[in-house]
């Protein structure tokens, strides 16, 4: 089943996004509000300083006026001229009761000014003050004010002279329109800057997340690459990757060993030119067959030999279905085929053994009767030498046939093993002494290649003695007088013992070697053909192995490998005890 790869954003936790917003939004909101507040404070401070400067200018103008006392006319004219300034909305002078003495708008003289202010407090305070408010006409006004305790005005015969309550108070209203536009622009700029900073912050955090994801992906990819390379290199089967043009992209060491090719030499080159036609047909046929094909195929080696490979060819495609190449997996089936043949041979031997056991039981009963009659006739005609001799021959042949049947029954019935630690030098010496007279009679020389140290094996000594005697007798039958029988003992590993019996006889034909373990297979004029079959069976029962090397007219060498696990452990225990 293919695993779908999702985009990066599907793998980002929503808590990461929410946490990012929870951090950025409050910070940028506070920064924006504080920026707006700083701009508001700057504008207010600018208007306040501007208004206070106008008040000081007004006071200076009155003190250094026309050289005569200010009267209502001059004051009114001065206020009207002053209010024409672009930044001034109005100029008002009242007494401390709020009565307008002079105004840039002459129509309101004598009216009461805004009573929301504490004019008594303003009149008593020598420092200027300010306020920002919205007038009745909706205009936003910044107003500065200050009492004028030192200003004296001659109002002449004005009707309101008796109502003036000094000191006078000056009010100047400043136009905030241009500054409001600037304030709006600055606020808009601040908000946009906040948005930009928010986007930059989000981009930065996203970049950090992407960088972390990239490092994590790169680390994961590196680990996966190392893991896949290790798996491919250590695979016990051959692996070959071809691209869409059938050029080699990857081949593991097992594949190099099986195909006899070097990846460095073949990388990026068409591999089809180096493969047999059967392989080319299999790879090309996968374009129109099932996604994976498995078959046994022959591969010729450079030495002229051919090995059998179990091969799987698979077309490789991307997630979207685009074809990218071929995957070839193969393993050497030579040993498996040999094991199959050995298993078939074992099954055949088992079947023959069962058949032979049944036949042997059926033959033995009449043989006993024949031997009994032969013994009877020998006693009856003992005075007739010729008849007695015939009876003796009959008895001998019956006994020989009984021995053959006994061997057949021994071969057919399950082996019972009585294994123990056995010293092999003594066992081999005893078996050679048993055949010594027969060797001397045939003129056969015996050579022993035995180590000085004692070697033990975990075996049934009677069964192994039977094996050795069978091998000796086969060697005697194969040699002429003057031949040489060599018996060797060695220790290839701590857990194995090796006994080799070699002769200088006529050897075994190559075509006969695969059948030497078959029951009743023999090339001799006499014999039952069970000798090597029994040898093979006994050694296999010991979890050992038998190997025969033979060349025609150059002799035969039979090697027996016997386990020594228990003997090895026993020697270790004895070493510790000593």
Summarize the structure in words.
The protein has four domains: 1-234, PAS domain (Beta-Lactamase), CATH 3.30.450.20; 235-332, Beta-Lactamase; 338-412; 420-577, 2-Layer Sandwich (Heat Shock Protein 90). Helix 11 (461-478) packs antiparallel against helix 12. It has helices at 14-63, 72-83, 119-124, 177-234, 253-259, 263-266, 277-285, 334-380, 385-412, 424-442, 461-478, 531-541, 565-577; strands at residues 70-71, 88-94, 100-103, 129-134, 140-148, 153-154, 168-175, 238-243, 248-251, 292-300, 306-317, 323-332, 420-423, 445-449, 456-459, 484-493, 496-503, 545-551, 555-563. The strands form five sheets. It has a five-stranded antiparallel beta sheet with strand order 3-2-7-5-4. The chain has 578 residues and is of the alpha+beta class. It is 49% helix and 22% strand. It is rod-shaped and about 200 Å long.
